[in-house]
Design a protein that fits this description.
The complex is a heterodimer of chains A (535) and B (430). By secondary structure, chain A is an alpha+beta fold. Chain A has three domains: 78 residues, Ubiquitin-like (UB roll) (Roll), CATH 3.10.20; 101 residues, Alpha-Beta Plaits; 239 residues, Rossmann fold (3-Layer(aba) Sandwich). Chain A is built from twelve helices and 26 strands. In chain A, strands 15-14-23-22-21-16-17-20 form an eight-stranded mixed sheet, with helices on one face. In chain A, strands 2-1-5-3-4 form a five-stranded mixed sheet, with helices on both faces. In chain A, strands 6-7-10 form a three-stranded antiparallel sheet. In chain A, a hairpin with a 6-residue loop joins strand 8 and strand 9. The longest helix of chain A is centred in the first third of the chain and has 16 residues. With 430 residues, chain B is α/β, with parallel strands linked by helices. Chain B has three domains: 214 residues, Rossmann fold; 85 residues, Ubiquitin-like (UB roll), CATH 3.10.20.600; 93 residues, NADH-ubiquinone oxidoreductase 51kDa subunit, iron-sulphur binding domain (de novo design (two linked rop proteins), Up-down Bundle), CATH 1.20.1440.230. Chain B is built from 18 helices and eleven strands. In chain B, helix 17 crosses helix 18. The chains are: A alpha+beta (535), B alpha/beta (430). Bound molecules: flavin mononucleotide and iron/sulfur cluster (3 copies). One iron/sulfur cluster binds next to helix 6 of chain A.
């Protein structure tokens, strides 16, 4: 830590016998968290205002007559705080008991089970046996519109959902109706949160199973899901996400906190566009042309076939995809350059409008609906086609040189595409009719199946990790393209994505000085010195 | 004048005009010496006004008994933006019905007090927050405010003093919790009536985020008399620590329940047996709740020698609160009374804080079960422990208030509980 020039700019306090130094204005809860002590809480959420109403985060502060809500109580020099004293523990146990007085205890059929803060806290500190003998209050279930279902009886009345809609989405669709024990979350109008573009986040921040996703309803148990850090591929914002995977299928996308990019949030447009990752119609094996047909072959055979037919003297052109990783795109650029240089085109879809998140202005669903257009542009590739990501390839219709297509599904092209090319290499994850005439077809993994980086709209390079196993024979495009480079004597075959990234940096001065390790899970802005090295 | 009924031991300062519709008009109020205090105050410095109120020793009549002069002095001396004065006329505490009478009989007394208070704390706007159910009282007050505007007591350049003060009469929507000072401010702002977390306190961040003082109707109604006659005049009644007169709202099993204005320190037994005429034939004292439903219940033994001032009632294990004396004779089923009070709190809890939201309802349900003969001895322990869990753990004290009568009634009337529990055991109900 750099030495502070203003010594008064820190506060030293003691929490549970350990000293901690934090900036002034920090709350006790944050100070405790900075030392790994997570004080239980429901209503507090780092992305929202703090109403201090759940009363679970009360702690003992020496000298204060009552227990203090740690989420709003600011640290003071010399403060002595106890979070696990008999008084604080008894209070928490009491509050937890109150939560269970009317709770249906329907964990076996609740989607939140396994990642539920009520389960967690009660399991850790609750009474062994509940004392309530009274009938429970029943609210039942409600459709809140959009993707959101409300199970009223599970609600702990933390009002996070209401505050998210009011403060962050700034689209007030929810409220607390009635008061006291009859308080219940409700929508103002019939359509509820329908059409509110960030409403899915209320499901994420609901600490219990009161708000659940219709899409995810009863699909998987939380403990069966593997979480992999990734980046949303659905626009150039590049929201940090986790892929939640079971049985080698993405079951849902969840935002991963990154204060620089997406805060704690993501948009519904991005959240719900993941089904394509689970498609079963995949390119599974390398194919090469033998006579009139393409036939499956081993990687070795197909690659040697390909290398034999490559000619440095022929003109070369390529089509790339802004959904490919920076490493794949850069390697393609190098191959094209090594073969004499030629134009690389790409198409990318574009929306009519941005969809900003008013309460967190850094975040907007961008007009540019691809994750890595910036990398393509930095590599001198040329955008063609319309806002649907179609058209613009007319000039290739009777092209007779070497043609390489990377990642573009060519959905608007027919089976005759590339039939005049002297050599047509198609690298893709899914079969395409427009690859029918290809001389060599190489299967590649999706972004969810490989390691790599995207460069987002603000020129932040961000890593993603593989959460799914690709088809057995699929290889990241930088591998076969790297092999071509090696054969042409224009570079070494990278062994890892990290090496492919370093090789890409030779082509892109903007990436200079960055390494996978320094990018970490939060990303790094291009052309900015990197300070943070923690993962 | 025989406002419903009066008693010779009363000292009628605030209630002098009650029962006479003429006091509702500017002319009627002036005939009783009205609006002279305002004139006098405007001729004094703000500091002098606050000093006079400090000398009087007047304590807030909204329940907590906080000295009014000191409260006013918490307001920033240097004004950086608007200041507000709120008058709390949400009177909803079970057993309390004095503010309503002050509103409907002597609205100008309150208006004059509000104007003096606003002047003292440099507020340009007064909001009088009336309980939603006070339909008639709110109308009377609104008419009086209108008339006072016309007469030049409210509005621009009051009485040529250069002071501008506006008064807005605001009708609540019927929620006990909006009597809590910060819930009241939220309600005026058009939000849900939820108490705010303190600090910050209203004198720093109050209504619309500006420095605000809030006072009860009776507190502000006392101000004109103190200004007119001086702080030491006010001290001729009451005790050293609890000076002045107080409106006692007496309800329950006495022959003459009602509002009585008495000097603080008045003996409780004298109130019951003399002023209120004692009990019905063959009945005797069982319990008293001396300060509205939020304070601990007193047994007949506690009432012996109890004086009705802030300290005297504390000595006997309860609190004076807003001096709403609920008197119960020996026909009373204490468990049922306590259950009804807890039902009230369960109904009125704003629902923010978990211990209050869940605890009030849980207590009410256990009490109902006991009342119906299905209680067990363990229930009493549960009631006490839940009460403990509800005390000192919430944003406002409604939660504590709900727990207090339960704990004190179990402590003092355990036999009533046990009798119901035993009866239940006998008929074998579980
Ligand atoms: C739940 C609750 C309800 C209250 N209701 C009232 C009320 O109806 N009227 C009132 O004057 N004060 C009420 N109070 C007290 C106010 O918060 C505040 O202390 C009072 O208005 C201050 O005025 P005073 O200083 O003149 O007493 C209530 C407090 C609580 C916690
Ligand atoms: S629905 Fe969930 S987020 Fe909303 S108040 Fe209830 S528990 Fe909190
Ligand atoms: S804003 Fe863009 S990156 Fe973020 S979730 Fe939406 S589509 Fe994905
Ligand atoms: S104690 Fe009860 S009434 Fe007061 S703020 Fe909390 S929930 Fe609301």
């Amino acid at each position: 830590m750099p030495e502070s020039t203003h010594p008064q700019e820190t506060v030293t306090l003691t929490i549970d016998g350990r000293e901690v130094i934090v900036p002034p204005g920090t709350t006790i809860l944050q100070a405790a968290e900075s030392m790994g002590n997570r004080i239980p809480h429901y209503c507090y959420h780092p992305g929202l205002s703090a109403p201090a109403q759940c009363r679970l985060c009360l702690v003992e502060v020496e000298g204060a007559p009552k227990l203090q809500p740690s989420c709003v109580t600011q640290v003071r020099d010399g403060q002595v705080v106890h979070t696990t004293s008999a008084k604080a523990t008894a209070m928490r146990q009491g509050v937890l008991e109150f939560y269970l007085a009317n709770h249906p205890l329907d964990c076996p059929i609740c989607d939140q089970s396994g990642e539920c803060k009520l389960q967690d806290y009660v399991h850790a500190e609750g009474r062994k046996h509940g004392r309530s003998r009274e009938p429970k209050r029943v609210f039942g279930r409600d459709d809140f519109g959009g993707d959101v279902l409300f199970y009223g009886d599970r609600c702990v009345m933390c009002t996070r959902c209401v505050r998210f809609m009011n403060e962050v989405a700034q689209d007030p669709r929810l409220t607390v109706v009635e008061r006291g024990n009859r308080s219940v979350i409700d929508t103002f109008f019939e359509d509820g949160v329908e059409g509110s573009p960030y409403a899915g986040n209320i499901v994420d921040i609901c600490p219990v199973g009161a708000l659940v996703s219709k899409d995810f309803l009863h699909k998987a148990r939380a403990w069966d899901l593997d979480h992999t850090p990734s980046v949303c591929p659905n626009c150039s914002q590049g929201c940090n996400i986790d892929l939640h995977v079971r049985d080698n299928r993405v079951q849902r996308l969840k935002p991963r906190a990154n204060p620089e990019v997406n805060g704690h949030w993501m948009c519904d447009y991005g959240r719900h566009r993941y089904e394509w990752i689970n498609r079963d119609d995949r390119l599974r094996r390398p194919l090469y042309r033998e006579g009139g047909d393409t036939v499956p072959g081993e990687w070795g055979t197909v690659l040697s076939e390909l290398l034999e037919r490559l000619e440095e003297t022929r003109p070369i052109r390529a089509v790339a995809s802004p959904f490919a990783s920076t490493e794949e795109l850069a390697t393609l650029r190098r191959v094209v350059d090594a073969l004499g240089g030629g134009e690389i085109l790409f198409r990318s879809p574009e929306a009519d409008d941005e969809i900003p998140l008013p309460g967190f202005p850094q975040l907007a669903r961008r007009r540019d609906l691809s994750p890595n257009r910036r990398a393509a542009e930095l590599l001198g590739m040329k955008r063609v086609g319309d806002a649907e990501g179609r058209g613009g390839l007319e000039s290739l219709a009777d092209y007779t040189g070497t043609l390489i297509v990377l990642g573009d599904a060519l959905a608007d092209m027919d089976e005759g595409f590339g039939s005049h090319a002297a050599l047509y290499l198609y690298l893709g994850s899914h079969p395409s009719p427009a690859a029918t005439k290809a001389d060599v077809v190489l299967p590649i993994p999706t972004f969810a199946e490989q390691e790599g980086t995207f460069i987002n709209v603000e020129e932040r390079v961000q890593r993603f990790w593989p959460g799914l196993l690709p088809p057995e024979q699929a290889r990241p495009a930088w591998m076969p393209l790297g092999a071509i480079l090696a054969r042409l004597g224009a570079g070494e075959l990278p062994a890892t994505a990290a090496e492919a990234f370093l090789a890409a940096a030779e082509l892109m001065p903007e990436l200079m000085g960055l390494r996978y390790e320094t990018i970490g899970t939060r990303g790094a802005i291009l052309n900015e010195p990197v300070l943070v090295t923690a993962p | 004048m025989a406002y419903p009924y009066t008693h010779e031991k009363e000292v009628r300062v605030l209630s002098r005009g009650w029962g006479d519709p003429r006091t509702r008009t500017v002319e009627g109020w002036k005939a009783m010496g009205g609006y002279t205090a305002l004139e006098k105050a405007l001729g004094m410095s703000r500091q002098e006004v606050i000093e006079e109120v400090k000398v009087s020793g007047l304590r807030g009549r909204g329940g907590a008994g906080f000295p009014t002069g000191i409260k006013w002095s918490f307001m920033p001396g240097e004004k950086k933006g608007p200041h507000y004065l709120c008058c709390n006329a949400d009177e909803s505490e079970p057993g309390t019905f004095k503010d309503r009478e002050l509103l409907r009989w002597t609205p100008h007394q309150l208006i004059e007090g509000c104007l003096i208070g606003a002047y003292a704390i440099q507020a340009e706007h007064v909001f009088i927050y009336c309980r939603g159910e006070f339909f008639e009282a709110t109308q009377v007050l609104a008419r009086a405010v209108e008339e006072a505007y016309e007469a030049g007591y409210i509005g621009k350049n009051i009485l040529g003093s250069g002071q501008d003060i506006d008064i807005t009469v605001f009708a609540g929507a019927g929620a006990y919790i909006c009597g809590e000072e910060t819930a009241l401010m939220n309600s005026i702002e058009g939000r849900r009536g939820l108490p705010r977390v303190k600090p910050p306190f209203p004198a720093a961040v109050g209504l619309f985020g500006k420095p605000t003082t809030i006072n009860n109707v009776e507190t502000l109604s006392s101000i004109p008399h103190i200004l007119n006659n001086g702080g030491s005049w006010y001290r001729q009644w009451g005790t050293e620590k609890s000076p002045g007169t107080k409106l006692f709202c007496v309800s329950g099993h006495v022959r003459r329940p009602g509002n009585y204005e008495l000097p603080l320190g008045f003996p409780l037994e004298e109130l019951i047996y003399d002023v209120c005429g004692g009990f019905r034939e063959g009945r005797s004292l069982k319990a008293v709740i001396p300060g509205g439903s939020s304070v601990p219940i007193m047994s007949a033994a506690d009432c012996e020698g109890c004086t009705l001032d802030y300290e005297g009632v504390v000595e006997k294990g309860s609190m004076l609160g807003c001096a709403s004396v609920i008197i119960m004779d020996d026909s009373t089923n204490i468990v049922k009374q306590v259950r009804r009070m807890v039902d009230f709190y369960a109904h009125e809890s704003c629902g923010q804080c978990t211990p209050c939201r869940e605890g009030t309802q849980w207590l009410a349900r256990i009490l109902l079960r006991i009342e119906k003969g299905r209680g067990t001895a363990e229930d009493l322990d549960t009631l006490l422990e839940l009460g403990d869990q509800m005390t000192g753990t919430t944003i406002c004290v409604l939660s504590d208030s709900a727990a207090a009568p339960v704990a004190s009634s179990i402590q003092k009337f355990k036999d009533d509980y046990l009798a119901l529990i035993r009866r239940g055991e006998k008929v074998g109900a579980a």
